[in-house]
Design a protein that fits this description.
The complex is a heterodimer of chains A (325) and B (526).
Chain A: H1 6-21, H2 25-29, H3 37-51, H4 61-82, H5 84-94, E1 118-119, H6 214-239, H7 243-256, H8 261-277, H9 281-294, H10 299-313, H11 318-323
Helix pairs in contact in A: 1-4, 3-4, 6-7, 7-8, 8-9, 9-10
Chain B: E1 4-8, E2 13-20, E3 23-26, E4 36-37, E5 39-42, E6 48-50, H1 52-56, E7 65-67, H2 80-88, E8 92-95, E9 101-105, E10 108-111, H3 112-131, E11 137-142, H4 148-160, E12 164-170, H5 171-183, E13 187-194, E14 199-207, E15 210-219, H6 224-243, H7 251-267, E16 273-284, E17 287-296, H8 297-303, H9 305-309, H10 312-321, E18 331-335, H11 342-352, H12 365-378, E19 385-387, E20 389-390, E21 394-398, E22 402-407, E23 411-412, E24 415-422, E25 431-437, E26 447-454, E27 466-473, E28 479-485, E29 491-496, H13 504-519
Parallel strand pairs in B: 1-11, 11-12, 13-18, 15-19
Antiparallel strand pairs in B: 1-2, 2-3, 2-4, 5-6, 5-7, 8-9, 9-10, 13-14, 14-15, 16-17, 20-23, 21-22, 21-25, 24-27, 25-26, 27-28, 28-29
Classes of the chains: A mainly alpha (325), B alpha+beta (526).
């Protein structure tokens, strides 16, 4: 804004933000409780002209962020009051006349109310008892046979890691939130924990590399190389019959790169073999079925699964115990 | 602080305007043209030539003259739209290592932003020559229906050209600004923008100086070029039938046909018939072959019938989304050279029940609007403000490859929405948040914008872990996504910077290359 110093503008905006954050929609728009639809619109338009973020386009980023927040709250208040029914409900809430609202009042002026939970696709579950497999988003290269003997696994395909802006982006400005939740601690970069590590904040994501500096990208590439080595080692372990160690290694590797189908195939395969070795036939079968679902062409997995199914039917197996055969 | 110029970076022609004494003024180039062809060519020394000079030599240098680069920018090579272009463009389109559509010129491979950057550099030069001062900042316009990847690619083009892009502005909104500021009255308008390569229709409410976009729709692959192509195809076919010679393999002949078709199309907007005359177009067994024939307006309208019909659906969609009928629209603003075609004007009248207004210059209003926006951002224009919308829905992928929308299309920006999701497995350790843009019901049918992971979730049965995902789109159209687990408070966030295919390192390197070229006296020519 020409004429005013930058910090003055930021301070003015902050004052506005504090004022309306705690206010009901009527106070936010600066309208009387008896206002009609026209009046709501007039007030909104006038406030838009003063507080739309484009007015502050030449200000530094932190000031623009405050302007964004202010406008979001103004817009939210407008959405709540421009509709005749919602306005009536809010009027009752703010200045009750004894007439109870017919329906539940709309959400307070916060960012959008919580919707019904939906389900998010996942990658390998962690050490869980079997549950249905959720296909993941990833498309990986087909895994080599688990024997690892004849086929040398190719270097795992790294998802393209574009070099991205060095340095972190400004964290999300704090806005009003539904009561009872913590403000998201905005880490500057997303990340996947290396096996056994702590919170993911501060680790760039191997999948996209978003938010990583060039040095971090290089570190990720190095990690991927050792990951390839570790993968080979795990396959070797599997071949030697060390199912549990192989499974744990595959799990760590899959965690680092959830997108790669290859790692998960090996994980489920190893897990299946581990269960079978422990005598847990149903669990073993389930894991092998998952592996097969990801990699239908694998002869090794099919062979292991067939063997498991035969074992199931043999006398002395579960059926044998149940029916005394 | 230097001036901020407004650039309409068009598929066929570009235009630049700037504020002078508070009024937006269109700047003409050295040849006196108020628009400049968006064409780039390279001479034998490998120096870029942009504009009318490039257009003039297009016929003799078809493989090294690029036009319509806006049709490639931000697109993958293996997309339906690019597949269409492969057969008809005389220059070579190739697939880059990241899957983007690039062009190959004189054995050099160039990304689309790099080529657009040369056009922007030319417009920058035009402005600097007129104003006598260096220009470093600009507002660049894009079709309203461009997705985030296309917008980012356009921004990158600006950076490479040595311009700080202060805003990416939607073309119909810019035109509405030019129109409405001039008219100064409250009204509802529809902006019908049919340019060289893209079609946008936006519905706006202009009230008390606030220009509020209610809805926008369009087709990023429908424009004047398609109308030209229909004529080219017809001429090539009739030539084949008459002389048994296939012109489509001959780059020079194609270029000549293209120019003749474009000229004929423009002519037929004011005449009922016109002549096409191309001597020595090809060589047959008996000697040289010429093309000389008459084309009637009715014939062209017949050829373009399907294209004209494609104009309907976006208009109806926009009206529906705006919750209005055609009768509620006070004026229809025509933008883009193609709106001069009588058949297009007839369609407008049919859809909206009224004739389009020709109050603003259809070739210049977008640049004028961009310059006006620079006045709003700079504080010189206090009485007007723009409220734009995001044209495509934004959401994340959930089980079954379904798209769960967080921000619906045509939501006013800036905006924030959140939704709560749960895990699908017992003891699930992490969730993958994949962001998509588009209207398809399946996430994989939409444009992927980015992905991150929220890990270290508490070990709980499936469905018990709740993750709150929040989308904030700011006024610049940048999307911030954050996810937090509600019990432990674990959180992470990311700013989705749509990957345009060029990394920031690439863009910086290209920008430095162009800057060095300019300082060495080798800027764009033409």
């Amino acid at each position: 804004m020409t004429g005013a110093s930058q910090s003055q503008v930021a301070a003015q905006l902050q004052v506005q933000l504090d004022k309306i954050r705690a206010a009901d929609p009527f106070r936010t728009l600066d309208v009387p409780v008896q206002v009609d639809g026209e009046g709501v619109r007039r007030a909104y338009l006038s406030l838009t002209k003063r507080f739309h973020p484009n007015r502050f386009a030449l200000e530094p980023a932190p000031t623009r962020d405050i302007a964004n927040e202010v406008f979001l709250l103004i817009r939210r208040a407008y959405d709540l009051l421009v509709d005749d029914d919602k306005r009536k409900l809010w009027r009752e809430r703010v200045a009750p006349t004894g007439k109870l609202p017919q329906t539940a009042p709309p959400a307070p002026p916060t960012p959008s109310p919580m919707a019904t939970p939906a389900r998010v696709p996942t990658v390998a579950p962690a050490g869980a008892p079997a549950s249905t497999l959720r296909p993941s988003t990833a498309v990986g290269t087909p895994a080599p046979g688990a024997s690892g003997a004849s086929k040398r696994p190719t270097v795992p395909t790294m998802p393209t890691v574009p070099t991205v802006p060095a340095g972190a982006r400004a964290p999300l400005p704090a806005g009003a939130r539904p009561p009872g939740t913590n403000p998201p601690r905005s880490g500057t970069v997303p990340g996947v924990p290396p096996a056994g590590a702590n919170p993911m904040r501060g680790r760039p994501s191997p999948a996209t590399g978003i938010g990583a500096s060039p040095q971090e990208v290089q570190a990720m590439l190095d990690a991927a190389r050792t990951r390839g080595q570790r993968f080979d080692d795990a396959v070797a372990m599997l071949g030697r019959g060390k199912y549990r160690e192989a499974r744990e290694a595959f799990y760590k590797i899959a965690m680092e790169d959830p997108q790669s189908k290859r790692y998960r195939v090996q994980l489920h395969y190893a897990w299946g073999l581990e269960h079978l070795a422990d005598g847990k036939l149903p669990e073993g079968q389930r894991e092998l079925e998952r592996a097969l679902a990801l990699e239908p062409e694998s002869a090794d997995i099919k062979a292991a699964l067939t063997k498991a199914q035969e074992q199931q039917k043999k006398p002395g197996g579960i059926l044998g115990k149940l029916f005394g055969r | 602080m230097g001036k901020i110029i407004g650039i309409d970076l068009g598929t066929t022609n570009s235009c630049v305007a700037v504020l002078e004494a508070g009024e937006p003024v269109v700047i003409h180039n050295q040849e006196g043209g108020r628009t400049t062809p968006s064409m780039v060519s390279w001479n034998a020394q490998g120096e870029p030539i942009v504009g009318a000079a490039a257009k003039r030599q297009a016929v003799t240098n078809p493989k090294n003259t690029i036009f319509g680069i806006k049709r490639l920018i931000g697109r993958k090579f293996r997309s339906r739209e690019v597949a269409h272009l492969l057969a008809t463009m005389p220059f070579e389109i190739i697939e880059a290592t990241n899957g983007d559509a690039w062009v190959r010129i004189q054995s050099r491979d160039l990304s689309a932003p790099e080529v657009s950057a040369l056009v922007l550099e030319k417009m920058k030069k035009v402005a600097e020559e007129y104003l006598g001062e260096e220009i470093t900042e600009a507002i660049v316009t894009v079709p309203a229906y461009f997705d985030d990847v296309q917008r980012q690619a356009t921004k990158d083009a600006g950076t490479i050209a040595g311009l700080k892009v202060k805003a990416i502005l939607n073309e119909p909104t810019a035109a509405a600004l030019a129109f409405g500021v001039q008219q100064q009255k409250n009204q509802r308008i529809a902006v019908f923008d049919l340019g060289g390569g893209t079609f946008d229709v936006s519905i706006l409410a202009i009230e008390d100086g606030v220009f509020e976009v209610l809805a926008t729709s369009g087709d990023t692959f429908l424009g004047g070029d398609d109308f030209d192509r229909a004529i080219i195809q017809m001429l090539a076919n009739s030539f084949k039938i008459e002389h048994d010679v296939d012109l489509t393999g001959d780059a020079v002949a194609l270029q000549r046909l293209k120019e003749a078709s474009e000229r004929a199309k423009i002519e037929l907007s004011s005449s009922l018939t016109t002549d096409v005359n191309l001597p020595f177009l090809a060589v047959g067994p008996a000697g040289p072959l010429h093309l000389a024939r008459e084309i009637k307006r009715s014939e062209v309208e017949g050829l373009c019938r399907e294209l004209l019909q494609r104009l309907d659906e976006p208009c109806r969609q926009a009206l529906t989304d705006a919750k209005l009928t055609a009768r509620d629209i006070d004026q229809v603003v025509l933008v883009g050279g193609m709106t001069r075609m009588p058949a297009v004007q007839a369609r407008v009248e049919e859809i909206f029940g009224k004739k389009g207004s020709k109050g603003v210059n259809p070739d210049e209003s977008v640049a004028v609007g961009a310059a006006t926006q620079s006045a709003i951002m700079g504080g010189e224009l206090q009485e007007v403000v723009l409220l734009d919308v995001t044209p495509h829905s934004l959401g994340i992928k959930v089980t079954g490859d379904k798209m769960s929308v967080l921000i619906a299309r045509n939501t006013t920006i800036p905006t924030r929405e959140r939704k709560v999701f749960s895990t699908t497995e017992d003891n699930q350790d992490f969730v993958a948040i994949e962001v998509y843009q588009g209207e398809a019901a399946l996430a994989s049918g939409n444009r992927g914008l980015g992905r991150f992971v929220l890990g270290d979730l508490p070990r709980m049965p499936a469905g018990a872990v709740r993750v709150d995902v929040s989308f904030t789109m700011d006024a610049d159209g940048i999307l911030h996504v954050s996810a937090s687990e509600l019990v432990s408070g674990k959180a992470t966030s990311v700013t989705i910077q749509a990957q345009s295919g060029l990394s920031e390192k690439d863009v910086t390197r290209m920008a430095e290359g162009r800057a060095a070229a300019r300082h060495g006296g080798g800027g764009v020519m033409g």
